[in-house]
Design goal:
8 strands, Methane Monooxygenase Hydroxylase, Chain G, domain 1, rod-shaped, eight-stranded mixed beta sheet, single chain, about 325 residues, Beta Polymerase, domain 2, 9 helices
Length: about 325
C-alpha cells in the first residue's frame, strides 16, 4: 500500500463489513465518498501535521459541526465528547511511542456509517491493533457499526497507557533502592522527571473518564447492551490507569520525603560524631591549657611544681587518656555510641 501525501497530511481509508474490507491511501477527500456508498463502515484517518484547509474540507464533506472542526484544528483540547444529534465528536489524548513521554490529540467524528479521525502527528500510533483486527476479521468488529469501532479506538488508546506505567513502576522501584543504599542528587532529579511525566499522563487520561461516562449514560447511539458491556470495561480500564498514576505519584512524593529524611539522618550522624569528638577533646584542651600558662616555678613553690617533676609529662598524658576512657564509657552507658 503506497503512502500518498495530501497537503502535508496522509489520508487513509479502511472500509469494512461482513463481506470483507478495503484499505487504501487516497489523494483527494472526494475519493472517500465511494466507500461511504458501498461499505457499512468507513474509517477515514487524516494523519500528519494539521492542515486547516484540508480538515475543513474533509469535515464539511462528512457533515461535521463547525465548532467541532474548530476544536479539531486547534489541537489544544482536553479529552471530551460533544453530541450533535446522531453525530458524535470525541477528543482523546494518545500516548506517543518513544523515550520521552509525549501525547497527541486525536479527534474522532462518528456518523451513521463512518468514523473520521484527525491525528496530530504522522507515524506510529496506538491504533494499530484496531487496524489489525479489521484486517484479520477474527472478532465481531466487522459485524458492528461505527459505535463499536469508536469503542475499539478508545479501548486501544486507554490500554496503551499500561505498558508505559509499568515501565515507570519498574523505574521507581530502582530509584527507591538507590535512595535506600546511596541517596544522591541525581536520584532526586530522576524522581522529579518521573513525577513530571506522570503529571502529563494524569492530565491526559483523567478527562477520559468523563468521556466514557457520557457515552454510557447520555448518548442515544451507544445503547446496544453488548456494546455497553465493552464500554464499561473500557471505563474500568481508565479507572485502573488513573489509580496507577496516582499510586506512582504518591510513591514519588514518599520517595522525596524519604530522601530528605535520609539526608537529614546522615547530617545528624555527622553532627553526632563531630559533637562526640569535640566533647572528648574539651577536657584535653582544658588540661593542655592549664599547663600552657607557663608560670615561673622559681618565683613560688605553688607555680606548677609538677613542671619540674621527673614524671610530669607522662603524668599529664595519663590524665588525658583517663579523661578519654571515662568519657567513652559514659557515652556507651548512655547509649550515645
Amino acid at each position: 500500500m503506497s503512502s500518498i501525501t495530501t497537503k502535508s497530511s496522509q489520508i487513509q481509508v479502511i472500509a469494512y463489513g461482513e463481506a470483507g474490507f478495503k484499505e487504501e491511501s487516497i489523494i483527494e477527500p472526494e475519493q472517500a465518498k465511494k466507500y461511504l456508498q458501498r461499505w457499512p463502515v468507513t474509517w477515514v484517518n487524516v494523519d500528519g501535521p494539521m492542515n486547516a484547509q484540508l480538515a475543513t474540507e474533509v469535515g464539511t464533506m462528512f457533515g461535521a459541526h463547525p465548532l467541532a472542526l474548530e476544536d479539531a484544528i486547534q489541537l489544544r483540547e482536553r479529552a471530551k465528547v460533544d453530541i450533535y444529534g446522531r453525530h458524535h465528536f470525541i477528543v482523546a489524548r494518545m500516548v506517543v511511542p518513544g523515550e520521552n513521554i509525549e501525547t497527541e490529540q486525536i479527534s474522532i467524528f462518528m456518523g451513521e456509517n463512518f468514523v473520521l479521525t484527525f491525528q496530530e502527528q504522522p507515524g506510529g500510533d496506538c491504533l494499530q491493533p484496531v487496524r489489525d483486527r479489521i484486517r484479520r476479521g477474527v472478532d465481531d468488529l466487522d459485524k458492528h457499526g461505527p459505535p463499536y469501532l469508536v469503542y475499539a479506538m478508545l479501548d486501544s488508546i486507554v490500554d496503551a497507557y499500561f505498558p508505559l506505567l509499568e515501565r515507570y513502576g519498574e523505574k521507581l522501584e530502582g530509584l527507591e533502592d538507590d535512595i535506600i543504599v546511596r541517596p544522591m542528587n541525581e536520584t532526586v532529579n530522576e524522581i522529579h522527571a518521573v513525577k513530571r511525566d506522570l503529571l502529563i499522563l494524569r492530565r491526559s487520561i483523567w478527562p477520559m473518564r468523563d468521556v466514557l461516562h457520557t457515552l454510557l449514560h447520555d448518548s442515544i447511539t451507544f445503547t446496544d447492551e453488548e456494546l455497553r458491556f465493552y464500554l464499561r470495561d473500557c471505563y474500568d480500564h481508565t479507572l485502573r490507569v488513573i489509580e496507577m498514576i496516582e499510586t506512582d505519584r504518591e510513591l514519588c512524593s514518599d520517595m522525596m520525603s524519604f530522601y530528605l529524611s535520609s539526608i537529614s539522618n546522615r547530617t545528624n550522624e555527622v553532627m553526632k560524631v563531630l559533637a562526640i569528638i569535640s566533647t572528648i577533646f574539651m577536657p584535653l584542651t582544658f588540661v593542655a591549657g592549664i599547663y600552657g600558662m607557663n608560670f615561673n616555678t622559681e618565683k613560688s613553690p605553688w607555680n606548677m611544681p609538677e613542671l619540674n617533676w621527673y614524671y610530669g609529662y607522662p603524668f599529664a598524658l595519663i590524665v588525658m587518656a583517663l579523661f578519654v576512657v571515662v568519657m567513652l564509657i559514659f557515652f556507651r552507658l548512655r547509649k550515645w555510641l
